[in-house]
Amino acid sequence: MSSHRCFFALVSLALPVAGCRERQVASYRVLREKELPPASVAAGAPSSPAPNTPAMSGNAVSTANGPGLTWTAPTHWKPIAASAMRKGSYAVAGIGGADADLSITAFPGDVGGELANLNRWRGQLSLAPASAAELAATITRFEQGGLKFAVVDFDNGQQRLLGAIVPVSGSTWFFKLLGPAATLAKEKSAFLEFLQTVKAPSSATP
Amino acid sequence: MSALYRQLRDVFVSLKLTVVLLALSLILVFASTLAQVDLGIYAVQEEFYRSFVAIWRVGGLALPLPGGYLVGGLLLINLVAAHLHRLKLQWRKAGIQLTHSGLIVLLIGELLTGLWQEDFQMAINEGDSKNYSESFRLYELAVIDTTDPKFDDVVAIPDSHLARATVVQHPKLPFRVVTKTYFPNAALARRDASAPSPAAGAVPIATQGIGPNVAVTPLPLTYKMNENNVPAAVVELIGADGSLGTWLVSPDLGAPQTLTHAGRTWRIALRIARAYKPFSLQLLKVTHDIYVGTDLPKNFSSRIKLTTPDGRDDREVLIYMNNPLRYGGYTFYQYQMDSARGLTVLQVVRNPSWLLPYVACIMMAAGLLLQFGLSLLAFIAKRRVSPTT
After folding, report:
1. ipTM, 2 decimals?
2. Distance between B219 CA and the closest CA of chain A, angstroms
3. Are A56 and B345 in contact (CB under 8 A)?
4. B362 to chain A nearest CA, in Å?
5. What is the number of structural domains in chain B?
6. Which candidate from B69, B230, B254 shows the least CB-CB separation from A18?
7. Residues with Cβ within 8 Å of residue A187, at least 6 apart in sequence
8. Can you give the residue ranges of every domain in chain A?
9. Could you tell me the residue range of the domain that residue B91 belongs to?
10. Is residue B273 located within the same domain as residue B180?
11. Do B284 and B373 share a structural domain?
């Protein structure tokens, strides 16, 4: 090939190549993912964390040690293996795959206090933080087997969160049921009955 | 040969053009280095180097500069044209020609990297498996047909389409997706209907789903390395019989919103852009070792199970620092982890042209060696011929 033909071909080809970077509308079929409750996406923070937050590496969070609580879960709740973070974990089946997630966690101390933790939960439902006075009206308190329960019910129209905070001998336990509002409406009574089964070990004092 | 062609050729093969382009690239590097203070490295790469024209903002001035593609592209043309024009196959010039060819390969390699490289991440919880990676900064509007109980039919619309308010009519969708409003960065809050100030979002931004309960505050774009822009958009779905309503979508909403239309169920969500893979990774265990008695990290590792749907691959892999998994054209690096939560984040990189810079450097080194070697031999030979002088 003569050199000038080569040269013209190059000039005409080289520039438009750079235009190929435009992202296109794509369509594909994928296997249905296991329905993850949204809290696992934004766990712990009211706003979604930056995906590339570099501060995450090795931030070991210590969970509460010492005597643990025991409980009896309803038979239709499917136990999931507890992780380093979770003392207990259950999948609560909903209608049409709209599953809810029950997590039981425990941490030393008061973990910032009741107000901060309830507002953290509100954040997970994209609800604005509430003041102590506003929250006081929404908390149901009861005592059972020497344990003090603070139970809340938050709802953003789509997602609902039923939670209980239980202080146990210097640490704080959290019971959280999070999922689609329809599923939780069905499961609320089961959740409250479940809380009644929570027992402290004989040595623990609240 | 026409006069126009000769003129063009003379411009493109001239050494003056090379010098001008090298000078322009110096200015570009200087300007982009200063701009990096405000824009951050990612925006600078995109605006100064992966563009034809860059706008350098100094004080109140906006100076247009030739972008990396223009300077690099012209340099490439200049180099190739000069090469072809002056091509003489001689041993004496072999070194120079090899060195220049290496330079051409290097320029092409950078262009292809810019076009083809994918840099994504994959966050997996212990016990979970994933078959897709997620972008660091791009978003997409996913419209998902969930009618089939086993499969999701996904139509993913890049956020760049939302930003340009392109009307998307896709054969798999029984409605058009029309972007009414797009915020490249926004904060969401619960809309307080009782507070009638416009700032609190007195007027609902969207009519369907969670939209009526949410107020959107636009935020300025952030270019900081540790912050992300979280976009929000209001999209209208228009079916054959007219509008179905408007939806507010944002990655901050967490859960996708559901709608039914024409007997099918759809979910709509603005989410981090995904790239699905023909295999899946399950996280078996994360390990984070520290040196005894200190907080200094010693080792991060993730034990992964790699499976393909056809069963051809089903094996365990250990990914740790400097020991990535290379599979299917992708490289998975250990990127971040949170061992307490049993979470690992892998960086997923695909760069089909990753070898080209290495090839280019070898070519240039070999070319220089050859050229110096030939000169040395010629010099020695000359001294031998005239020993008496």
Report:
1. 0.70
2. 14
3. yes
4. 24
5. 2
6. B69
7. A92, A100, A162, A177
8. 74-81+102-199
9. 3-116+355-385
10. yes
11. no
